[in-house]
Specification:
Helices cover about 50% and strands about 10% of the residues. The protein is α+β, with helices and mostly antiparallel strands. It folds into two domains: about 120 residues, no CATH class; about 325 residues, Cytochrome P450 (Cytochrome p450). The strands form four sheets. A six-stranded mixed sheet has the order 1-2-3-9-6-4. It has a three-stranded antiparallel sheet with strand order 5-13-12. Helix 7 packs across helix 8. The protein is globular and about 70 Å long. InterPro entries: Cyt_P450 (IPR001128), Cyt_P450_CYP7A1-type (IPR024204), Cyt_P450_E_grp-IV (IPR002403), Cyt_P450_sf (IPR036396), Cytochrome_CYP8B1 (IPR030686). Keywords: Endoplasmic reticulum, Heme, Iron, Lipid biosynthesis, Lipid metabolism, Membrane, Metal-binding, Transmembrane, Transmembrane helix. One of its GO terms (molecular function) is iron ion binding. One of its GO terms (biological process) is lipid metabolic process.
């Protein structure tokens, strides 16, 4: 027994040495960015980073400047905070900075999906074919019908629908958009009432997975939570299985295209089920939270609400809800809403916080806009965090923490696309969808979903905050770097169908 204890002790020392030695020995080489390994071997700054990424990076920038390398859990990340220097990283004509490798590692861990060769290009191709142009308009029609079904009920609106209904704004937006998006993408059975019930149950499970997601990515779950995540994954794999999909009609062409590709590649049905779960999360994990922030900002800024409603009346006409279960809507109006477009850009600027990561395939010379050159080491990762370096930069966006609904509008009502930093025009002035090879392939559909929902809410409903003086809730610090931020707490509001003849 004593002998085994000694052996285990030696093995532990070897393991700790193996993990920590590279970090202990690493030193900053000539021309490399400032190196900050932190005080804890191997972990480095991981705890502070995971606790509040925004505040951590703000402190590192104040300490080291616009380029610095930090140790996070045995890996080294070089953060570039100068948006004028983003171009070489995003374009990467040398093909030295790889996004696909990191993305594949993440989907394997979170969704259990084993990517096949060509997946990344296939997803972008499918999105170009089915989430843009005429195909997007067809999907918008399905989405409008799904929203009508969920918000008005399968039998259409009734007299009691004109009474006030109270709910949490975040819960209402997330629940509504998730269910409509899920049904629009994965189709319906012949039992619509059962479909609605299943969508409601699925949202509750999805929400639970979403709450665990940030700590799951960072491997910070408790043993009980690890078991729960496994159960949730299996539930989604079963519910979204290709076998169950055979029982449905109207699955989106987007999903059909991708699943056909996987079948042709010989991907097993069980792995296709995991792919479906990944696509559900990718398509529905941010639309509901983004809609929450957009509606909240409109409710907190009456001049913005008035401008959006005025525009909606101009492009849609007066709201009418006839004795039918569907909203009547000119989908072409989505292409003629510059005010709402600006509201959405401003909302995403304030609420979307993606991290753009690239794996460095070989030693790489980064040329900054000021002429400075830095050597980035092979095996490290280079990262951009636009929320801090772009969205909250007062030089690019004056009073950056303030919601300004017309920030992205020119005086003549056209879209404003000219922004400057240090007197120089900046190309990447708002980056909620990422950029380059990692740009969100489904961004056009996501934006259409949200705009459709917002237009329905401001056109067909009266809505108001239960407490008009309630402050805008702060952001949940766990969500930094994971797409659209979520509030620390919900906000109560009430809504009712407008009286219509």
């Amino acid at each position: 027994m004593v002998l085994w204890g000694q052996v285990l002790g030696v093995l532990l020392v070897i393991l700790v040495g193996y993990l920590c030695l590279p970090g202990l020995l690493r030193r900053r080489k000539p021309q490399e960015p400032p190196l900050d390994k932190g005080s804890v071997p191997w972990l480095g700054h991981a705890i502070a980073f995971r606790k509040n990424m925004f505040e951590f990076l703000k402190g590192m920038r104040a300490k080291h400047g616009d380029v610095f390398t930090v140790q996070l859990g045995g890996q080294y990340f070089t953060f570039v905070m100068d948006p004028l220097s983003f171009g070489p990283i995003i374009k990467d004509t040398q093909r030295t900075l790889d996004f696909v490798q990191y993305a594949q590692e993440l989907v394997r861990k979170v969704f259990g999906y084993q990517p096949t060769e060509g997946d990344h290009q296939m997803i972008h191709s499918a999105s170009s074919k089915h989430l843009m142009g005429d195909s997007l308009e067809d999907l918008n029609k399905v989405m409008l019908n799904s929203l009508s079904l969920i918000m008005l009920g399968p039998k259409g609106w009734s007299l009691d629908a004109s009474f006030w209904h109270e709910d949490g704004l975040f819960q209402f937006c997330y629940n509504t958009l998730f269910k409509a998006g899920y049904l629009s993408l994965f189709g319906y059975t012949k039992n619509v009432a059962q479909d609605l019930l299943q969508a409601e149950e699925l949202f509750m499970k999805f929400r639970r997975f979403d709450l665990l997601f940030p700590r799951f990515v960072y491997s910070l779950l408790s043993p009980r939570e690890w078991l729960e995540v496994g159960q949730l994954q299996r539930l989604f794999h079963k519910t979204l299985s290709v076998e169950h999909n055979l029982e449905k009609d109207g699955m989106s062409g987007w999903l059909c295209y991708m699943l056909q590709f996987l079948r042709e590649q010989g991907v097993a049905p069980a792995m296709q089920d995991k792919f479906n779960f990944m696509m559900l999360w990718a398509s529905q994990g941010n639309t509901g939270p983004t809609s929450f922030w957009a509606l909240l900002f409109l409710l907190k800024h009456p001049e913005a609400m008035q401008a959006v409603r005025k525009e909606a009346t101009e492009v849609l006409g007066e709201a009418r809800l006839e004795a039918t279960q569907f909203f009547t809507f000119k989908l072409s109006a989505l292409q003629h809403t510059p005010v709402l477009n600006s509201v959405m850009e401003e909302t995403l600027r304030l609420a979307a916080s993606p991290t753009l990561l690239r794996a460095i395939q070989k030693d790489y010379i980064l040329k900054m806009a000021n002429g400075q050159e830095y050597l980035l080491r092979h095996g490290d990762k280079v990262a951009l965090f636009p929320y801090l370096s772009v969205h909250m930069d007062p030089d690019i966006h004056p009073k950056p923490t303030t919601f300004k609904y017309d920030r992205f509008l020119n005086p003549d009502g056209s879209r404003k696309m000219h922004f400057y930093k240090e007197g120089k025009k900046i190309h990447h002035y708002n980056m909620p969808w990422g950029s380059g090879v990692s740009i969100c392939p489904g961004r056009f559909f996501a934006l259409s979903e949200i705009k459709l929902f917002i237009l329905i809410m401001v056109t067909y409903f009266d809505l108001e905050l239960m407490d008009p003086d309630t402050p805008v809730p702060s952001m949940d610090p766990q969500r930094w770097g994971f797409g659209t931020l979520q509030p620390r707490h919900d906000v109560r509001f009430r809504y009712r169908l407008k009286c219509m003849e």
